[in-house]
Design goal:
84 residues, four-stranded antiparallel beta sheet, single chain, Immunoglobulin-like, mainly beta, globular
């Protein structure tokens, strides 16, 4: 199941840190955020998920990436733009 509101970025484009805003009711023990490049290669993951989860993207090259939030049977993928 996908949900349009459970997972969003606080701002986009990103310069150094991506701040993801996640509905508290969507967070479980198995929640994960995965960052992919456009070839769907896994670049980074975070399993320490809170209502405002921050990931440092400073080492990422400028460009477009995909961020996927997964929790139980729910998921959402959003595009993020890194611009240093």
């Amino acid at each position: 199941m996908t949900d349009k509101t459970l997972f969003n970025l606080q701002s986009n484009p990103i310069t150094t840190e991506a701040v993801f805003v996640i509905e508290a009711s969507s967070i479980t023990e198995d929640s994960i955020i995965t960052i992919y490049d456009l070839t769907e290669k896994k670049i980074a993951t975070s399993t320490n998920i809170t209502e405002t989860t921050t990931l440092n993207l400073e080492r990422f090259a400028n460009g477009l990436y995909l961020a996927k939030f997964e929790s139980n049977d729910r998921s959402k993928t959003i595009k993020i733009l890194v611009q240093h």
